[in-house]
Design a protein that fits this description.
Layout (H helix, E strand, L loop, with lengths): L31 H17 L3 H4 L6 H20 L3
Amino acid sequence: MMPMPSARRSPLPVEAVIPAKANRRTPAPHDRVKYRWRNVIERLFNKLKNWRRIATRYDKTKESYLGFVALASIKLWIPFVHET
């Protein structure tokens, strides 16, 4: 059996972004603004994964994959900025 690689420590300080459970005795402090932004980004990725081409990384090159991610992001963004 091969040994498991050891986890490396991050050079940056780690802070809680997700709030602790309500029943925790000593709740860890968290940043509400960062939590909101994390939620927005997570929802964007979930919407992007609805595109099969993005979810399966169908494109062979990095440039074409990132180009299609940009196109899909624009298509998701347009309804929010376009007035009907």
